Amino acid sequence: MLKLSQHYVLRNRLSSQHINQRNFSNSRMKMAVIDFSIKDRGIAVIGLNTPDSKVNVLNESLNQELPSIMKRIREDKDIRAAIIISRKPGCFIAGADISMLESCGSGAELEQMARGGQKMMDEIEASDKPIVAAINGICMGGGNEVAMACHYRLASSDKKTVFSQPEVLLGLLPGAGGTQRLPRLIPFTEALTMVLSGKTIPAQKAKKLGLVDQIVSPVGPGVTDIESGNMEYFEEVAINVANKVVDGKLPYKRTMSYDGKHKSLQDRLLESVASRWGFARNYIIKQARSTVMKQTGGKYPAPLRILSLMDKTLAGRGTLDEEAKIFGKLYDTTECKSLLGIFRGQTECKKNKFNQWKTRDISRVGVLGAGLMGSGIAQVSIDKGMKVMLKDITIDVI
């Protein structure tokens, strides 16, 4: 973990490098979502900033922009490596744009969308120039799938930095390679828990599991506000890490071909036996299925379809193709439509559109029902200086 004292050494070193480097000022490119530039020693910076949103999401604009950026990185000989970083404090990528999912008329259409997402992740991973994910803030769903497709993952130790695959909470499963990349990076049982529960894990646990390669501590107060200072520092660290990766000073990996050698001996033995012997694999899946049935009563199809696919993944037979097919089929279920509707309702309620209307001063209150609740409301209102009319079906209650 990088410490505060290293910040100033790093800043001075990068500044001296900047003086002698080639002038990349003409290499800046601003798009709807992506702010692209080339910095120290040919490190491309892909800055994400979804317009008119507090968080970054995977939407149509990003889906169109990122492939062209990857093409630029691939063809530009001056670019040695790249980092993907957020321009929004407290958020890397919060996942897919729900409106984009809801715009699909059928599961078949969503399946094709999933295949497009998989293709984008494959292109990131296939890059012959290392791509570093600089994660500062929430990294959920499709955001985590983007991070896993990168060759090296750097995460802030800030408490806002958390990782999850919450698709199951919407009646879906990870559709951009998550079911195949996650168990290659972290122990299979941990991956199974993440995709079945949708729960978040903090950066420190992500590092321990192998989802993250390096943790960076915030720098604290400085000449600018803490938030801006930390974002600036984090980008400097990420650029420095990318230089070390491309120079061979830090190892990196391509997730889909990774052998999981960083996992503990116990986890590697368990996964090796389970992949070869059906009884061991059946035991793991049976335990997970028992938990799912206890929690859902079998009334939600997504967890069961996830279990089926993850079973094949552990056996070495899981594929991106099947992931996309299941993603589309789940979208057509009543449960998925209902859960998406609930999510949409919760999101709209948080916006509280009624704040835009000017409220009137209230001086008189009428309360129907003089029971415990009604009398309590009446008492509080009287204490606030309001005139109260309390009405009930019997005078004795009043």
List the helices and strands and how they pair.
Blueprint: H1 4-20, E1 29-30, E2 34-39, E3 43-48, H2 60-75, E4 81-86, E5 91-93, H3 98-102, H4 107-126, E6 131-135, E7 138-140, H5 142-149, E8 152-156, E9 162-164, H6 178-185, H7 188-197, E10 201-202, H8 203-209, E11 214-216, H9 226-246, H10 265-276, H11 278-296, H12 301-314, H13 320-331, H14 334-351, E12 364-368, H15 372-383, E13 387-391
Parallel strand pairs: 3-4, 4-6, 5-7, 6-8, 7-9, 8-11, 12-13
Antiparallel strand pairs: 1-2, 2-3, 9-10
Broad shape = globular
What is the terminal separation in angstroms? Answer: 66 Å
Helix % is 40-55%
What is the strand arrangement across the widest sheet? 1-2-3-4-6-8-11
Number of strands: 13
Order of helices and strands: HEEEHEEHHEEHEEHHEHEHHHHHHEHE
Radius of gyration: 25 Å
Strand count, sense and closure of the main sheet?
A: 7 strands, mixed
> Which regions are unreliable across 5 or more consecutive residues at pLDDT < 50?
2-26
What is the number of helices? 15
Mean pLDDT: 86
User: How much strand content do the residues show?
Assistant: 5-15%
The computed structural class is: alpha/beta
Short synopsis of the structure:
The protein is of the alpha/beta class.
Could you explain how this protein is built, in words?
The chain is α/β, with parallel strands linked by helices. Helices cover 50% and strands 14% of the residues. It is built from 15 helices and 13 strands. A hairpin with a 3-residue loop joins strand 1 (29-30) and strand 2. Helix 1 (4-20) crosses helix 9, helix 6 crosses helix 7 and helix 12 packs antiparallel against helix 13. The longest helix is centred in the middle third of the chain and has 21 residues, at 226-246. It is globular, with a radius of gyration of 25 Å. The termini are far apart. Mean pLDDT is 86; it is low at 2-26.
